[in-house]
């Protein structure tokens, strides 16, 4: 980048020629060094505990070395109690497992007994149908046949005795005896026939139905036994599941306590230098401190083990310039502890959301976190240490062979930019169109020529003319407002405008502009026009959100006729329209050389 020529004081007026040259558009911020591969050792004990011993800060340790010991006395007591609970749960689980096996055996026995009863019932039914009933029928049928034979013989005997009695060979008593014998034989026959009928018509049917009903009942009994067996087994299995779950819960509790006891001894996961995690918060008086005897909570960082071979810079980017920052952009890094030495880096990550605490002390202005990875050789990087302050200069764009002017030589009024150019022994006001800018220089696209000398402090030397232009603009906008006409974007002074890219009208990326000389931003020099007095923005104060609108910095007293510093002009403006007659666009007549000022 070609620096502007030294200012020239002619008749007490500071001027400098505009020249063609190269310019880098950069974003400068401050940040803090950190390791890109940082092992963070945290407290893994539930609740809180106390640090018993810790390795002194700065000690170099090897992988596996003990670096911190936490108080585990309460955990040891809990381990003993939990061990008893675990043993009881294990005994109940074993008993439940045995109960399940016993129930399975009992179920098998009950089902087998029911099936046996059914088999016996079916056998009784078959025995009756194919054995007992036929036997009884045969017996009663034989009795009927025998009774018939007896009746036939009695009748024959009666007939014989009757003939003999007629001949006088038998007595009347013999005849009466034969009659009684016949009657008895008839009764015996009738009884035998009735028994056979009862057997076939009643006894058989009743016994058959009874045996069949018994068989069906035993079939149903088998189903009941099976269902009862399933229910009983399910109950035992449910008890087993309960005991298994209880055992698992108690075991998990025990193992967790054991792990926490082990976690009370913290070992180094890698080689490195011990750094206590004493990241104090300036907004809190009760920020946690790491030391012996300190109480630490679960997941609280205790020790950092940085890898010095890979370092990075964590920086905060103002919201007005975050759209300019992309991953992969080259960065120049300067470390306060190594003055004069420049480190190379590249933008590694850019946060997509603002920091949650960035507006705590900065009003409504938001900031985004960006990480810059150092790309120099390990031998150069590993001498750095986390926590060192660093200044980063992100190279957003590089312009070649463009016309450049100092930023303080340009005055913005509304949406127009002006420069005062020396012409012989007088000065004339020019409307210019600007492009990209950085903290020191601004690209001139139209309105100036190479070699022309511009006034370095126009707001001081031409304060009256600047005030007239601003008053005319305010009056014109007030008239438009009273008539209901359109207003310039960004309030009565037209400072809002539309968001434009850093390339001006010809820009292709459409990103937010770089605002030159923004005061108060870390790593950026606030600009204040020499001699501007209260009209310039003071150094050291970051503009709040009310001063930022689409990449522009609004005046602090917007709408007033007060003057503004060179940091107030936007990145680009439209060229003066042809034929314009307003005092903003027409070229001012040459002014006589002002008197020399001390």
UniProtKB/TrEMBL annotation:
Superkingdom of this entry's organism?
Bacteria
Compositional bias segments (type: Low complexity): 508-524
Q: Which GO terms describe its cellular component?
A: cell envelope
User: Segment Disordered: which positions?
Assistant: 472-598
Coiled-coil stretches are: 137-235
Question: Which keywords does the record carry?
Answer: Coiled coil
Q: Where is the CzcB-like C-terminal circularly permuted SH3-like domain?
A: 406-456
Transmembrane intervals: none
InterPro entries from the entry?
Answer: Beta-barrel_YknX, CzcB_C, UPF0194_transport
Question: Where do the YknX-like beta-barrel domain residues begin and end?
Answer: 311-394
Principal localization?
Answer: other
Q: Where in the cell is it found?
A: Cell envelope
Query: A Pfam family this protein belongs to?
Result: Beta-barrel_YknX
- According to UniProt, the name of this protein is Efflux transporter, RND family, MFP subunit
This protein's species is Planctopirus limnophila (strain ATCC 43296 / DSM 3776 / IFAM 1008 / Mu 290)
